[in-house]
Each structure stands twice: as C-alpha cells, then as structure tokens.
Amino acid sequence: MRLFVLFLIFSGINLSVLGQVNDYTHWIKFDQSYLKIEISKDGIYRLGYSDLKDAGLTSFKNISLLHHGEPVKLLAHNEIAGELQKDGYIEFYAEKNHGVLDSLVYRPRKRNNPFNSLFSDLATYFITNADELPLRADTLISNATIATTAYYTESMLYAPNTQYSLNNSIGLLPVIQQSFYEPGEGWSGEFATTDTTKKIDFFLPDFVKSNSKTKVYLSLNGRSRLFHNLNLSLNTKIVRNRISIPPFGVYIDTLEDNSGLQNLSFEIKGNNKGAFDWYSVNYIQIKYPKSFGAALTTRPYELPLKDSLCIFKNPGQNASVYDISDPNNIRKVLIKDNSEYQYFKSNQDATIYISDAVQKPKIAGLVSFKKRSFKPEYLIISHKSLKESAEAWASYRSSKAGGEYKCGVVYIEDLY
C-alpha cells in the first residue's frame, strides 16, 4: 500500500499531447467566501436562516449549493424575490463520498471497487451567493393507482473490503510498482488459493416473480503474477467456464438469473495448480424485484418503469418523498391522497428517497479560494499526517538529481 500518491506528472510535452486542459476552477469566484459543509451520510438535509447566519453567512440573496463544481438544486422555504427570510430554510439531498474522484488516480481511469472511497467517506458541499436566482428543485404531484403488485429493485452487496491488494505485508507484488494506481489495486476480499473453493450465498427476501430478471454484477481480482483461470458456478451450474484474468488484473461481468429462486449460491474455483495462483472477490452485487414491505424506512428505492409509470407505496403522512434519479436535480413528490399506491409518469426508471426526518450537516466554516499562478509539473497528493515525507519527496524531485521538476503538494482533506 502506498504512503502517498503521485497523482499526475505534467510536462510541456504531455500538455501539448493532451491538448486543452479542463479548467476545474470555473465555478469559483475568488472575491467571495463559501460556506463549507461536510456530508458523511446520504440523506435529506436542512439548514435554517439562523444556522446560516451563525455560520458566518452575511447575505441571504440567491443562495446556491455546489458539489464537485456543479450546482445542486435545493428547496428554499419562505424565499421572497430570491432572499431567504428569517423564518425560512433550505432543504436539499446530499450524498457522502462514494469515491467517484478516486478514478483519477487509476490508469486506466477505472476503480477497483466502485462502492467505497480509498481515502475518505466525507463529501464536501459549498453554499454561496449566486449573481442571479439559481434554479430551485421542482415539485412533482403523484396520483393514486389501484396497483397491488408494485415492487422496487432491491440491491444486495457483498464487498468485504478485508484486504488491500498489492500489499507488502502479503508479499506478492507486481515486478514493477507504478506511481499511479493499477487496475487491481484497492480494497478487496481475502485472497483464495487454487486448492479451495470460494462460496458466497445470498437470500433474497420478499422476492417478486415478475418480468424483471435478477441481475448479478461481479468483479474478481487476480492477486498474483500468474495468469488466473477460474470457473464460476451459480447454484451448482457453471455459468462462466475458464475465466481468464491477467496477473494482478481485474475481471468484471454481468449475469442474469431467470430461475426465480430466492437462494443464490456462488462458487468460484481455480483451475490452475500453481502454488501462488491467488485471487479474491472485489464485489458481488445482486439486483432483484422486491415487494414493498408493510412499513417503508428512510432509504432510496429504485422504481422500474412500467407502461411509462413509476409506482411506489405511499409512506404515510409522516414521511416525505423525493425523486433523486439525478442527485443534483431532485424533485419533491407531493402525494395528493391517502391511497396505498401512487404513481408518476416518467420516461425511464426512477429512484426515490423516502425520509421521515431531515438531518443537519456539519458546518466546517467559511472558506475562500486563492488563485494560484504557479502550475506544477509534478503533483504529489498525500495525507496531512505524511506531510513531512511528502515535502521531502517534493524537495528531492525539485533538485537536479530528482529531475528539476516544479513540484506541488496537495492533501486529500483539501480535495474532498
């Protein structure tokens, strides 16, 4: 496992090959402050006028929310002519860091495990004042339906994250370790050897027999210097014969199960006889049709499209419903009556979020950004606990012996 990441090495030649470089600071206004908030859990959040004022916000005109440089639509309650009133509040949907930016440290830019971040679960959002009133979240009115067979797409995930691949403590590493992250690098399950059979079982509660098939998304990791050869079985039937995985490579596949069974049993067995033919499971994700329970809990629900309609169970008067199909452009779903099942029209599958409570985000304080004219050729990304080592490496790479690069050091905490 690396102590710090050498993110990208730039030179005049590299930049000319890449052509125009994206300006990722386009959203920043360097002459104003931003209120930084931190999100560690997916959900609906609310900040009142007094919360914003106590945090240091001085203007309540055209309040906007930004994440990863993109605007996030919010609901503004009691906002007059773009100005939030003293008894008003803003409400929005926000997600923790699921590691989307981690792909930037991989070559190619594809993460080993798309469900977790390598570095931090904490996501950062910014509140500021726009020049004009930003677009607000829309409302959507649902209608009653007599449907009694409505279901949603449930997701079950096996992603053990118990071992870090390419790990010195285990002892098997590529002949050459690159400064960037390689395809098989990251958190995975414990490695298995060819003399063992890896077994993983799932039980699918409240399974609904429908036209929707059970889908399986899986990723296997080659954990040694050999070419790996594996068989994958589902309920004792071989569904993938002699899977080939290159040394320290990754195998990704999608399967469909038409059996209609609630019990799914996976077995993975190596065909090679090499002593170090190691492999592990990065993840297995199951998506299947599941009936709505008696009481709905606070969580997202994936709704399959049926005849241009998305149908869901009414969560009751004490809960709110949001369409979060696009997390940056949510819509609040207003329920007209007390009918058990509701629908709204759509041209694609939708994801709703049902919430019986709102959360308050952690306020990190006001921040401002500085425009830097210095453009490093060699950028080092590290953790602040390793500051001394990162700066020592930057000093070496800046020296004649290290290549005389213009070096820069940034820290993970500032990126997320």
Task: Please characterize this protein's 3D structure.
With 416 residues, the protein is mainly beta. The protein is built from four helices and 28 strands. It has a seven-stranded mixed beta sheet with strand order 20-25-22-23-9-24-21, with no helix packed on it. Strands 5-4-8-2-26 form a five-stranded antiparallel beta sheet, with no helix packed on it. A four-stranded antiparallel beta sheet has the order 10-19-14-17, with no helix packed on it. Strand 15 and strand 16 form a beta hairpin. The radius of gyration is 25 Å and the shape is flat. It starts with a strand and ends with a helix. Mean pLDDT is 89; it is low at 1-20.
Short description:
The chain has 416 residues and is mainly beta. The chain has helices at residues 12-18, 49-54, 387-398, 412-415; strands at residues 5-9, 34-39, 43-48, 63-67, 70-72, 75-80, 83-94, 123-129, 138-145, 151-158, 163-164, 187-188, 197-203, 214-222, 228-234, 237-245, 250-257, 263-270, 279-291, 299-303, 309-313, 320-323, 331-335, 341-345, 350-355, 362-367, 378-382, 407-411.
